[in-house]
Amino acid sequence: MKRLRQTNTASVVLRHLSQPDEPGSNLQIEVNRVRWRDLSFLRRPRKQILLNQPYGYWLTGDPFQAGMRQLMPLIRSVDRVAVARGDGRPLGHAVFRVNIPDDRWTLESVGSSTGVYQSEPIWEELFRYSVMAAGLEGAKRLYAKLPVGSSLIGSARKTGFAPYATEHVWTSSDIPAATACSDVRRQSASDVWSIHQLYMAAVPRQVQYAEAITSHHWDANARVSTDERVTGWLFEDGNQILGYVRVTTRPDRHVLEFIVNPDHRDVAHELLQTAFAQLAAMPRRTVFAVVRSYQFELLLMLERAGLTAWQEQDVFVKYTTAPVVSPVINGLPATQELSEPVGKRVPTFYETHGEAVTKATLGKIRTAATNNRP
How buried is 7 (Cβ within 10 angstroms: 0-12 exposed, 13-18 middle, 19+ buried)? Predict the structure, then answer.
């Protein structure tokens, strides 16, 4: 089992904190990983924003619980909690979660306790520190799902996070009545490669570059835990998969995501009906459906099924390493210097113990060669 190595780096910077309409004052901010003495502050932060919706929830985003898991000795933790301090007291925190097996970091929540001062400078330093800590652990990407219009967007952009997709999250408190379609079947272990081929064909190239997922991502058992399981249904035409719906189930909710061939958008309705028919047999849970901006036509299908708009958010990515393109220098042909023709020289293998053959020895060799000439 892979061991997650946690760094113990620190970031200290002088920042200017200000009130919304008044000038502020400079304050030295130190950002570091969570410490035991920070837990009392993390238990009741003044301002808390839960992110990574609709997958994030109190267990993964709660800074106190995440901090406890990270600080417990001899326990393999995927939590990364950064705390900003100034003037001897905590000012804010950021909770990231390491996703196995590719070690990408996902922002689960942020919080602050700055009183009358604005929180954006604190969040900016928390993001900057987390990027550095992720890079030192070997992570190549950090992700953040931020609601449209959120005050976090400015801090994320200043630290290098860039949006690559927009998500529309719709919800329903009950499972709508539905009938399963005979052309839709449950995902099996052998479907992983075919689902990934559908993803490559249906998702824009820039999104694929940002997400950098492999076929193992579609394994139905990849994200199974004690309180979460993943199932999938697909619409197949011969040997070609035209549509796929992935359902993540937790004790309090179902989350649906779609991948549909752009030329066969109509199969999304059969996928949705079959998923609802299967989920209706389970205990009652809230339903969420996530639709990307390049799947906008699916929103009408969700509205007709009885779901309502819940949140719109942008998906950001930050690379800890940047590809560097080295200029290609064409080799220039070496020009030969023109010189007077010289006589033939004795080969260099006429050397004894690394020392050059003396002129007398060379003379004897030339004389012998002349006498033996026919």
Answer: middle
